[in-house]
């Protein structure tokens, strides 16, 4: 089970990637990328001889560009990226960037099995026009892809990426159901205590415990009573957060 310190480390590492300033066409130099919105995944069209059909790819983009999407996702599962060569993956990013409307964001799947290859692919995709990298969790050696291994992988990629990084997990491939379920179960009681039973006073008290500044509430909200504070503390302690 992952402790609060482990989750803190991955949050810090990934926030470094998500808050980077990027100079992509859609985001503008020196601006941070807002990734809220709808991003349809694009397929990779092929000819009858299995060559990438860049003409059809651009044709699809022209039609999709008429809709108010925030951007597009390429080389996700629907893009058949495992069947593309490295040069094809980069060429697809370049062609899509050139063909898509300039005000839309390009989210490109840059995941590879090794951390080094993922970093290299992410940097290369950024150079040819990707605004955001979508990094699939490595899964070939899934039996060794522990939470610690994945945290190291994603933190390293985020630290070295020139563009924001979005995590892309396919639980059927990674087998990471158990850790996610354990984390969810550990969050239920503290979340219920803060959002339903103790409200803002409980939220601010929890912030104080976890190293943030919560401080007092403004009247008419009242501080927690000693009994309420102890009850809230037990919810956090029993689930491994304190």
TrEMBL record:
Q: Which Pfam families match?
A: DHDPS
Name the SUPFAM superfamilies on file.
Aldolase
A Gene Ontology biological process in which this protein takes part is: glyoxylate catabolic process
- Keyword tags: Lyase
- Name one molecular function that GO assigns to this entry: (R,S)-4-hydroxy-2-oxoglutarate aldolase activity
Q: What would be one Gene Ontology cellular-component term for the protein?
A: mitochondrion
- InterPro entries membership: Aldolase_TIM (IPR013785), DapA-like (IPR002220)
Q: Tell me the subunit arrangement.
A: Homotetramer.
Q: What is the official name of this protein in its record?
A: Dihydrodipicolinate synthase
**Which species does this protein come from?**
Myotis myotis (Greater mouse-eared bat)
């Amino acid at each position: 089970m992952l402790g609060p310190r482990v989750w803190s480390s991955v949050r810090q590492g990934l926030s470094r990637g998500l808050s980077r300033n990027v100079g992509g066409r859609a985001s503008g130099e020196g601006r941070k990328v807002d990734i809220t919105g709808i991003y349809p995944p694009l397929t990779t069209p092929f000819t009858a001889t299995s060559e990438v059909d860049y003409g059809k790819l651009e044709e699809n983009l022209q039609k999709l560009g008429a809709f108010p999407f925030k951007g597009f996702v390429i080389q996700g599962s629907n893009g058949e990226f495992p069947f593309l060569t490295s040069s094809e993956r980069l060429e697809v990013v370049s062609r899509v960037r050139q063909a898509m409307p300039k005000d839309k964001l390009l989210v490109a799947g840059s995941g590879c099995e090794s951390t080094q290859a993922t970093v290299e692919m992410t940097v290369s995709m950024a150079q040819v026009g990707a605004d955001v990298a979508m990094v699939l969790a490595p899964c070939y050696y899934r039996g060794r892809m522990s939470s610690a291994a994945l945290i190291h992988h994603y933190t390293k990629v985020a630290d070295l990426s020139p563009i924001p990084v979005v995590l892309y997990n396919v639980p059927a491939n990674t087998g990471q159901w158990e850790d996610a379920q354990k984390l969810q179960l550990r969050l239920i009681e503290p979340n219920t205590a803060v959002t339903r039973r103790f409200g803002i006073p409980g939220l601010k008290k929890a912030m104080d415990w976890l190293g943030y500044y919560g401080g007092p509430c403004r009247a008419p909200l009242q501080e927690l009573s000693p009994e309420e504070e102890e009850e809230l503390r037990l919810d956090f302690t029993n689930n491994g957060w304190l």
